[in-house]
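Every protein is a chain of amino acids, and every chain bends into a shape of its own. The fold becomes a row of whole numbers, each drawn from a learned catalogue of backbone shapes. The protein below has been through that process, and both of its lines are reproduced in full.
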Amino acid sequence: MNTKMILSAVLLSSVAMMAHAGEGKKHRHNPDLNGDGVVTTAEMLEQRQTKFAKMDLNGDGYVTQAETAELKAKMDAKREKMRSEKAKAHFAKADTNGDGMISVEEFASQSEARIKKMDADDNGEISREEMRAAMHGMRKG
């Protein structure tokens, strides 16, 4: 019986993390609910109960495979919407004359702007350090 309870808790934790995975870095949940720098057992339990309640879509006290599938579908749809909006914004930025097409000149202009931004010492070359810094900056957002 204890093994089933432990496995259930692990499964629920995993599913809960999946449910919140698409929320992005800005919205990571901090289990230190009162902000005192210490995470208590009570805070962890409250966090788990809150996550469970969000996953229990019909409020019956159980999380079913159908509910987890629905949560995943919602996350996937939200993620796809964000990707689509981001792609549209990138396209609009590159399409400087607004004609709905990106010319070779517009494309080159975007590339030149990116290179110039990466070239921190403005010497016309991208060093490994500048490349690493640029990649690190892209990961940060």
Observations:
- The chain has five helices and no strands.
- The chain has a mean pLDDT of 81.
